[in-house]
Design goal:
Structural class: alpha/beta
Number of helices: 21
Strand content: 5-15%
C-alpha cells in the first residue's frame, strides 16, 4: 500500500507544480481536518501573491475526488483536506492484513553505522549513552526498512596508553588483572596504571619500552594486549546486554584493525599530490577550513614523530567502508565536539577520490546529557556516572513505582518489568528530543507513567492488551468492515495509517524523535478512543471493528517501540 500521507502529497504536488514546479505542499495533520497543506503561504510570499487566492488556485488544480470528500481553504491560505471515509476504511483494511503495517521494504542499501566506541580498559559511562542508544535505534530502523546494516563499534584499542596498561597487568599478575576486569572494575585498573606512570620513573620507562614492543609486533606483548582487549570486549558485551542494544562482539573493529592500512593511506595521499609537510608533520589542507587566525587548517595524518594520529585511522576506516564493505551510507553517531575533525576527514576522503558523490556520509550529531543543575551529569562525588550505575538507579526507581501502583507481579517478574520500564525511561528520554539538543536526565519525570515518556507508551500497550485478556477467548483478526462512525475511532484510524511516513521521516532525517512523536500521538489517540468508545460492551460488527482497531494499535505500538529498542510488556 502507498501510505495515506504520501498518496495525498503525490496528488497535491501536481497541483502545486501547476503554479510553480518544485513547490512543496508541506502536508501536516490538522485540528480542523484530516490533513492541512501549508505550503501555499510560503509559495505566495515567494511569488508576491495573496495566499488565499493562490490556495484557491491550487485547490482548483488538485485532482483528489477519489481520496477526499472535502477540500477547503481556511485562514490566511491553509488548505484543509478531509479524506473519504471509504478511502480510510480501505487503507485500514489493507493495513490490518499487512504484517509490516504498511511499511514497504526499501531498495536495499549497505548502511554502515559507527556507534558506541568505548575505550579498552575503561568503563562505559554516561558519555557513551547517547551514541549507543541513538546508533542502535537507527540500526534497528534501517534493518526493518530492508537495508543491510553493518554496525561498527570503533573502540580505542591501540596507542601509547597500552604500554602502561600492559606493565600494570604484569605487576598485578594476569590472574588478578582478569579478576579485576571480570568484576567490572576497569576504572580502578586504569587509574592505578595512570598513577604509577605519573609517579614512578622506572614504571614510565618500562611502559614506553612496552609501547615500542607492541608497535614492533613482539609476540608476548601482543598476547598481553589481547588479554586486555578481550576482557574489555567481554565487559562491553555485558553492558550492551544490560541496556538491550544489538551490538555484538563481531561488530567490534578497533583502531588496531587499521594499522596495516595506514602506510597505504599516506602513500596514496602523497601520490594524489595532497600531502604537505608542515612543521615536520605530514598534513592535508582541505579547502574551506581555517583556524582562529584565518590560516588554513591542517588535517595531520602523520605526526612529526612519525606516529599516526586519529585522522589516519579514520581515513583508513572510511576508505575500507566504501571500497571493501561497499557502504552506500556511512553514519557516524559521534558527539558534536568531533564535528570539525570528521568534516575534514570527509573532505580529504572526497579530495582523494575515496568518497564518491553517491555515498551518503554524515555525522549524526547529538547533544549532552545534563544533570538537574543543567551542567554535565556527574555523580555526587563529581565523577562521570557509570552507565551500569545509571541503569541500576533507574531500575530501583521503577521497582518502587510499580509497588506504589499496586503491581500484581511479584519477585523476579516485578524485577523484570522494572528493568523493562527503566530501559524505556532512559532510551525514550534520550530519543524523544531532537538529538542535537542537550537534555536533562530527570529520573522522576522519565519513569512516570503519565506524559511524554517511555513508560506511558508501554502502559498504553499494556492497556490495549488488557482488553484482549478480559475478552476471555482468543481473538483473531477477521475481514472487518470499518465504518468509523465516531470521531474518536476515525482519529485513531488516521493515526494508525501514519506509521510509514513517520518511520520514513525518521530515517531520511536521522531523527528518531520523529518516530517517538508519532507513537506518543498514537497513544493519546487510543486513550481518547478508549474513553469514548467502549469495546467489550459493544456488540456485533461494532465490537469487531473496535477490537480490530485495538489490535492494530497494539501491533503498531509494539513495532514502534521495538524499533526504538524498547520492550512492550503485555501487563503492567
Amino acid at each position: 500500500m502507498v501510505d495515506t500521507k504520501t498518496a495525498l502529497e503525490i496528488r497535491l504536488q501536481s497541483a502545486f507544480d501547476a503554479v510553480e514546479p518544485g513547490a512543496d505542499p508541506v502536508l501536516r495533520p490538522s485540528d480542523h481536518a484530516d490533513f492541512q497543506a501549508n505550503g501555499a503561504l510560503a509559495l505566495a510570499k515567494r511569488l508576491g501573491r495573496h495566499p488565499r487566492e493562490l490556495a484557491e488556485q491550487i485547490v482548483g488544480a488538485a485532482s483528489l475526488d477519489d481520496l477526499c470528500e472535502k477540500i477547503e481553504v481556511s485562514g490566511p491560505g491553509f488548505i484543509n483536506l478531509t479524506l473519504l471515509g471509504s478511502f480510510v476504511a480501505a487503507q485500514l483494511s489493507t493495513l490490518a492484513a499487512d504484517s509490516r503495517l504498511g511499511v514497504g521494504a526499501a531498495r536495499t542499501e549497505n548502511v554502515v553505522v559507527d556507534y558506541s566506541g568505548p575505550n579498552v580498559a575503561k568503563e562505559m559511562h554516561v558519555g557513551h549513552l547517547r551514541t549507543t542508544v541513538i546508533g542502535d535505534a537507527l540500526a534497528r530502523m534501517y534493518r526493518f526498512a530492508g537495508h543491510t546494516v553493518i554496525a561498527r563499534n570503533h573502540i580505542g584499542d591501540w596507542g601509547t596508553p597500552f604500554g602502561m596498561l600492559i606493565e600494570h597487568l604484569l605487576d598485578l599478575g594476569e590472574e588478578q588483572a582478569i579478576a579485576t576486569f571480570s568484576m567490572g572494575d576497569l576504572n580502578t585498573f586504569y587509574k592505578e596504571a595512570r598513577v604509577k606512570f605519573d609517579d614512578d620513573d622506572a614504571f614510565k620507562a618500562r611502559s614506553r619500552s612496552r609501547v615500542v614492543a607492541l608497535q614492533g609486533g613482539d609476540s608476548e606483548t601482543l598476547r598481553l594486549w589481547r588479554v586486555l582487549v578481550d576482557e574489555s570486549i567481554s565487559y562491553f558485551g555485558e553492558v550492551y546486554a544490560k541496556i538491550d542494544v544489538t551490538l555484538v562482539p563481531g561488530d567490534v573493529v578497533g583502531e588496531s584493525h587499521y594499522n596495516e592500512m595506514l602506510e597505504g593511506v599516506i602513500n596514496d595521499l602523497a601520490t594524489a599530490g595532497l600531502l604537505v609537510e608542515s612543521e615536520g608533520a605530514q598534513c592535508v589542507f582541505p579547502p574551506g577550513f581555517q583556524n582562529r587566525e584565518g590560516e588554513p587548517l591542517p588535517l595531520i595524518v602523520r605526526k612529526r614523530d612519525d606516529g599516526f594520529g586519529y585522522a589516519a585511522t579514520d581515513l583508513a576506516a572510511l576508505r575500507e567502508r566504501v571500497s571493501v564493505l561497499h557502504g552506500d551510507e556511512l553514519l557516524y553517531v559521534v558527539g558534536a565536539p568531533q564535528a570539525q575533525h570528521l568534516e575534514m576527514v570527509f573532505a580529504v576522503a572526497r579530495l582523494a577520490g575515496w568518497l564518491p558523490d553517491g555515498v551518503r556520509c554524515e555525522q549524526v550529531i547529538f547533544g549532552n546529557v545534563l544533570g538537574p543543575d543543567h551542567k554535565m551529569l556527574k555523580s555526587r562525588s563529581g565523577e562521570t556516572v557509570k552507565l551500569v550505575d545509571l541503569l541500576d538507579e533507574a531500575i530501583e526507581r521503577a521497582y518502587v513505582i510499580l509497588e506504589e501502583r499496586g503491581s500484581q507481579l511479584d519477585g523476579e517478574a516485578r524485577l523484570h518489568l522494572a528493568t523493562q520500564v527503566a530501559l524505556a525511561a532512559i532510551k525514550y528520554a534520550d530519543l524523544s528530543s531532537e538529538r542535537q539538543h542537550d537534555y536533562v536526565f530527570d529520573l522522576e519525570r522519565m519513569v512516570a507513567f503519565e506524559g511524554d515518556t517511555g513508560p506511558y507508551l508501554q502502559y498504553a500497550h499494556a492497556r490495549v492488551s488488557s482488553i484482549f485478556r478480559r475478552l476471555g477467548e482468543p481473538w483473531q483478526a477477521r475481514d472487518v468492515h470499518f465504518e468509523l462512525a465516531e470521531g474518536a475511532s476515525r482519529a485513531l484510524a488516521l493515526g494508525l495509517l501514519g506509521l510509514p511516513p513517520a518511520l520514513s521521516s525518521s530515517l531520511s532525517s536521522l531523527q528518531p524523535h520523529r518516530l517517538c512523536t508519532y507513537l506518543f500521538d498514537l497513544a493519546q489517540r487510543f486513550t481518547s478512543f478508549y474513553d469514548a468508545c467502549p469495546v467489550l460492551s459493544a456488540e456485533g460488527a461494532l465490537r469487531e471493528e473496535r477490537l480490530a482497531l485495538c489490535d492494530l494499535t497494539a501491533r503498531t505500538l509494539r513495532l514502534g517501540l521495538d524499533l526504538l529498542g524498547i520492550d512492550a510488556p503485555d501487563q503492567m
